[in-house]
Amino acid sequence: MFIRDIENELNNWSIRSDRKPLVLRGARQVGKTTVVNKFGEQFENYLYVNLEKAPSKQLVESTDDVKKLLPLLFLYCNKSRKEGKTLLFIDEIQASSHALSLLRYFYEDSPEIFVIAAGSLLETMLDKHVSLPVGRVEYMAIHPCSFIEYLRAIGEGRFVNLITKAELPNAFHEEILQHFHLYALIGGMPEVVARYTANNDIVALSRTYNQLLNGYKNDVEKYAESNKKAHVIRYLLDEGWAFSGQAITLGGFAASVYKARETGEAFRTLNKAMLLELVYPTTNVLMPAVSDLKKSPKLFWLDAGLVNYASGIQREYLLNKDLMDAWRGMAAEQIVAQELKALSFETGLKRNYWMRNKRGSTAEVDFITVSDGKIIPIEVKSGHNAHLKSIHQFMNDTNHDIAIRIWSGNYSVDKVKTINGKEFRLINLPFYQISALPHILENV
Questions:
Q1: Do 273 and 305 reside in the same domain of the chain?
Q2: For the segment 284-293, what is each residue's pLDDT rounded down to a tens digit?
Q3: Burial class (CB in 10 A: 0-12, 13-18, 19+), 364
C-alpha cells in the first residue's frame, strides 16, 4: 500500500480544533474508500457504513439523535467501543438525504466524533435540491495519483523531496523524466498504479482500464434524468476521450447529431461527477481571471491513462521519446492539466487557459495559474525562448515578470526580453517537477 498525499491532508484535518465533518469529493475509483480505511487504522474506534446497503441506510435513517445513533452503529459494525478517538466513515452518502442532514447534528451535538462522508454521485443528488448543511461541513477533493504519489508507489520515494523543492540534480534528470513518461502513459488511477507496481506489465492493465470505463458507463442511469440525456452521456463516454486537450464545439461534438444544449448538459453532468472538466479561456492578463463562456472550452478528462487507453494511443506513446511528440502534443497538455489539478485538495477550483482578446489574433497560452494576486501564464512547449510568441504577448500586457514553460528539459530560470523590450523571468519546469510549482512561486 503506497502513501497518498490525501492521507497527510486527512491528518491535518483531524488535528484542527475547528474541525467539521468532512465530505470527500472525487470520481468513482479514485481511492476514497481505500484512503479512509487506511486512515481509520490510527483510531481506537473505526466505524464504516455504506449507505448503498439497505440495512445501513435503514439504521442511519432510524433517528435524528446522533448520540442515540452511535451505539447502534457500534452494534451494527459488531465492535465494542474502546477508550479513545472514534472515526465514523459514511460511504455513498448520496443514497440518503437524511444522512446528509445528520452531518449538521454530528457537528453541533457530538463534535468529539470524527466524521467523514463520501459519495461519487453526490453532485447528482445536490442537483435535486438536497442541500448539505451550510457552515457545518467542509470539503476535500480526491484526484487520481499524482506523479509524486506514483514515485512512492514504485519505490522511488527518495526523489520526492528533491523534486518538490526543485533541488533535483541534473544528473538524475533523464531517469526521472523516463519515470514521468511511463506515469503519463499508464495514468494515476490507484488500481492501475497498484497493478502495474505489482506486475510491471502494461499490457495486463487493459482489463483494469476496461473495468473502470465500463463502471462509468454503468453509472449513466444514476447521472441522467431522461433516456435522451443517458444516450448523450454514453456517447461522450464512448467518443469523447479522443478529444482530450482540444478546444471543442458543443454542437455536433465528435460528429454527433446532438445539439449544443444537449451536449452541454451531458458535459456538465460528467463534470459534476468529476470525470472531466471543460476549461474555458480567460482574456485577462490582470486579476480577476474571469472565464469567457462565449469561447470554446478545452476538454480534459480525469486521468491520462484512461485517455490513452480509450483513445487507442498507447502504442504511439511508446514509440515517442518526447512527451511533446505524442498525439500532437495533446498528451502533454492532458497530463499537465492533471498534475496542476492535483496541486490542490480544494473543491470547485476552476482551471483556465488564456486567449488574447484582439480581433484576428491567435495568441493562446495553454494554462494560467494565480499566485500572489497575479495571473501567471503556463505554456507546455519545447524549443527556443523566442518561439514562445503567445507568452511574449501575454507578458507585454501584464504587470509582473514571471512566466512558466513546462517541457522535457532541465529546470532553469532564464531572463527573456520581448520584442517590445519588456524583460521577464521564464521558469523552465520539467514535466516531473510540476509539484514544485507552489514552492517555486513562493520563492521566485
A1: yes
A2: 999 999 999 9
A3: middle
What's the CA angle centered on 112, arms 20 and 344, to 5 degrees? Answer: 30
Over residues 316-349, the pLDDT tens digits come to 777 777 777 766 678 899 999 999 999 999 998 8
What single string gives the DSSP state of each residue in 316-378? Answer: HHHH-SSGGGGGGGHHHHHHHHHHHHTT---SS---EEEE--STT---EEEEEEEETTEEEEE
| 38/151 same-domain check | no
Domain identity same for 186 and 332: yes
Give the CA dihedral 422, 428, 433, 437, nearest 10 degrees.
Answer: -10
Domain that holds residue 219: 147-336
**41 vs 305: CA distance, rounded Å:** 30
Say yes or no: 152 and 273 in one domain: yes
Number of domains in the chain: 3
Total length of the chain: 444
Considering the domain architecture, whether residues 275 and 388 belong to the same structural domain is answered as: no
Residue 18 is part of a domain; what is its CATH number? 3.40.50.300
Give pLDDT tens digits for 135-190.
Answer: 899 999 999 999 999 999 999 999 999 999 999 999 999 999 999 999 999 999 99
Q: Which residues, listed in sequence order, are joined to residue 118 by a DSSP beta bridge?
A: 24
Cis peptide before 288 (omega within 30 of 0): yes
